[in-house]
Automatic annotation (TrEMBL):
Pfam families: Dpy-30 (PF05186), NDK (PF00334). Component of the axonemal radial spoke complex 1 (RS1), at least composed of spoke head proteins RSPH1, RSPH3, RSPH9 and the cilia-specific component RSPH4A or sperm-specific component RSPH6A, spoke stalk proteins RSPH14, DNAJB13, DYDC1, ROPN1L and NME5, and the anchor protein IQUB. Interacts with IQUB. This is Nucleoside diphosphate kinase homolog 5. Keywords: Cell projection, Cilium, Cytoplasm, Cytoskeleton, Developmental protein, Differentiation, Flagellum, Hydrolase, Spermatogenesis. It comes from Acipenser oxyrinchus oxyrinchus. Belongs to the NDK family.
Length: 219
């Protein structure tokens, strides 16, 4: 019996809660194809966790593409990326970074049309610069890119150590303190249930759904 149990534990993979996330950008040259590209994204098995439409300034583009600073194409890149609205999305699925990179294809759209004709850059891009979409190269890049476009986003795996303390101090403690303060004022007969309900109602990370998207400047 014990041998059978040990065999089953070896055969059955441990459950994974963590789902990888990456940043996707629909660049200004393909912003009018937003719905088409989103359909392709969803059909590829991604979940769009968050989305916003932004019109970045040249300075914000410079910050986002800081690793490219000093290269000949950098001025053209920042001018192009600040020329119109960009749709930023957090995508989630198993191995999201690798799957998104495969879906968008090589950076040069002309090359993509030859080697990856079904990729997004082959379909919607027109050049090495105007290549329709952006994808993070690795986990650290995805983490940085997501935080740039979505400063309040939570990125798994959940932080530990000093990062956890910083997160609690910024997002959890202020809300909990406000709830405990109200609890002292109200003095309900069932304080535990009252506080639980209050925290649900005042959760600062509660998702909201809007009927339309508003163009906004990135922070």
């Amino acid at each position: 019996m014990e041998n059978d149990k040990a065999h089953m534990e070896r055969e059955m993979p441990h459950p994974h809660i963590y789902v990888e996330r990456t940043l996707a950008l629909i660049k200004p040259d393909a912003a009018d194809k937003e719905e088409e590209i989103e359909d392709i994204i969803l059909q590829a098995g991604f979940t769009i966790v968050q989305k916003r439409k932004v019109h970045l300034s040249p300075e914000q583009c410079s910050d986002f593409y800081a690793e490219q600073y000093g290269k000949l194409f950098f001025p053209s890149l920042t001018a192009f990326m600040s020329s119109g609205p960009t749709i930023a999305m957090i995508l989630a699925r198993d191995k999201a970074i690798a799957h998104w990179k495969a879906l968008i294809g090589p950076p040069n759209s002309a090359k993509a049309k030859e080697t990856h004709p079904d990729s997004l850059r082959a379909i919607y891009g027109t050049s090495d610069l105007r290549n329709a979409v952006h994808g993070s190269d690795c986990f650290s890049a995805a983490e940085r890119d997501i935080k740039f476009m979505f400063p309040d986003a939570i990125i798994e795996p959940i932080p530990v150590g000093q990062s956890a303390k910083d997160y609690l101090g910024r997002f959890v403690n202020p809300t909990l303190l406000a709830g405990l303060t109200e609890l002292c004022k109200k003095k309900p007969s069932d304080p535990f249930t009252w506080l639980a309900d209050w925290l649900i109602d005042h959760n600062p990370n509660k998702p909201t759904v809007e009927d339309r998207m508003v163009i906004e400047e990135a922070d």
